[in-house]
Amino acid sequence: MKDTALKKLPIKALPKLLKQTFMRWLDSDPWRLSAIIAYYTVLSLPALLVIIINSIGALWGEDIVQGKLTQEFSAVLGVNAAESIKTMITETQQADKNLISTIIGVATLLFGSTGVFYHLQLSLNEIWGLQANPTNSINIWGMIKSRARGFAFILVIGFLLLISLVVSTGISLLNGYIKSMFPDVVLYAAYVFDFILSLAIVATLFALMFKYLPDAIIKWRSVWVGGFLTALLFVLGQSLLGFYFGTSNPGSTYGAAGTVVLILLWVSYSCLILFFGAQFTWVYSNYLGIGVAPNSHAVKAE
Predict the structure, then answer these.
(1) What are the tens digits of pLDDT across the range 36-57?
(2) Beta-carbon neighbour count of residue 139 at 10 Å?
(3) Domain count, the chain
(4) Burial, 18: exposed, middle or buried (Cβ in 10 Å; 0-12, 13-18, 19+)?
């Protein structure tokens, strides 16, 4: 479509788009897709966190990065679950260090950490009505490229985490000075700025996912709007999840497996939000008259 066919998004059109998004979201069976991603997340989590800690820790310090991640997990899953994840990371990093085990360990980390993004790519393709191009033969090189794309997203997550660490640390260092020199309203403004920046970082991550992870051609205008809506719902959802896990403790009845159950629930609920945002991105792109087209690796599903 030409640019003249593009339409603005008036507020009055938003309820209709959200209703259409919700209906498509229900039809895509998001609970099944979320359960798949949650399963692969549990398998990928140790390797994913180890790579993030080692890569970003080289610049910021591994203890600081691990402490930040533990703090984030504590806010959502609770202290006990966060400590279990911390122990999981420590045991992964304390593996044997001989050459052969190191090579095997690195290969396992790379393959394991990218698994969740590979299956997330398949889920987004399904949500956007795309499927693998039957004329393309399956080859090892294609699988390597998909895994490399997943590893790139791990580095993006690490980079965004680094930005968040820098800003959060700067605000924490300035809080005492601001509180002593300025009224409380300025201190609250600093917290609001921190929230807005965190929202922008999450929105950027989702926009990049919608742009580069699926086998699709989509305009930046669509993914930015979809990424922002997804980030807003995600931040609100994480607050509600933290409150729910903190009050009901749904993993307590599973004993030693409680941490795994909490991770599965957390990722499943988060993916429901992510898939809703992906559906909205598709609906909004079609509303603009742009649409979502498959790239050379995919075709539209019949």
Answers:
(1) 888 888 877 777 777 777 777 7
(2) 9
(3) 1
(4) middle
